Amino acid sequence: MGKILGVGGSPRKGGNSDILLRYLLKGARSQNVAVKEIHLRDYQFQSCIGCERCRKDKRCTGLQDGMQIIYPEVKESSAMVLISPIYNYNMTALMKSFIDRLYCFYNFSDERPGAWSSQLGGQGRKAIIAVVGEQATREAAGMDLAMAAMRGPIEALGYEVIAELPVLGIFHKGRVKEYPQILEQAESLGMQLASLL
User: Fold this and answer.
1) Reduced to 3 states, what is the DSSP secondary structure of residue 1?
2) What three-state secondary structure class fits 154?
3) How far is CA 84 from each of CA 50, 55, 95, 190, rounded to the nearest angstrom?
4) Is the pTM of this model over 0.85?
5) Tens of pLDDT, residue by residue, the chain (197 residues)
6) Which of 7, 141, 152, 186 is 20 to 30 A from 116 in CA distance terms?
7) Collapsing DSSP states into helix, strand and coil, what is residue 163?
8) What are the CA-CA distances from residue 93 to residues 43, 104, 119 (Å)?
9) Distance of alpha carbon 139 from its chain centroid, rounded?
């Protein structure tokens, strides 16, 4: 059995994203799968600076920060759960910076533009993407944009996104607890993810 890494992209501790991540991982734990939960707000790290040193070094050497703690967790996990609230029609800056910093897992040919592959590809890695938005409709919330912006890079890195959990119309901190059907769905998706490892 593999390990699942849950990555929370919310700057707000104890909010709806945190609660949903907890239920997603609860479902996975019920299947006796190892789980690691991290919240990006707890790590000091920068956005990618485009130094391109990782093209040669095959790892991020241009920035020495909290991502150096997270990278081993990504490599050792066979699945990821990514969750973000919608901020201004997209994922949070924390989640975007995290995804951008996974650029170091790509292998590139010398020509520009040229061929590339992923160090994480071809390993059967799986993922779930979850997004929480205040507005009641996908269009008003920016749900489709946020989902696509998270899904595209994760799939390019070699993950199969086995499920998406769009949660709409919830804003107040912790309010998702009043929607047991959403919590049950999150737990069920966590179980499904674990069963595929």
Assistant:
1) coil
2) helix
3) 24, 28, 7, 16
4) yes
5) 589 999 999 999 999 999 999 999 999 999 999 999 999 999 999 999 999 999 999 999 999 999 999 999 999 999 999 999 999 999 999 999 999 999 999 998 888 888 899 999 999 999 999 999 988 888 877 899 999 999 999 999 999 999 999 999 998 999 999 999 999 999 999 999 999 99
6) 7
7) strand
8) 13, 19, 25
9) 22
Q: What is d(CA 10, CA 1) in angstroms, rounded to the nearest whole number?
A: 28
For the chain, first and last CA: distance in Å? Answer: 6
Beta strands at 160-167 and 34-39: parallel, antiparallel or unpaired? unpaired
In 1-78, alpha helices (H): 16-29, 53-57, 67-76
CB of 50 closer than 8 Å to CB of 18: no
Q: Which fold has domain 3-195?
A: Rossmann fold (3.40.50)
Give the Å distances, CA to CA, from 115 to 32, 111, 158.
39, 8, 15
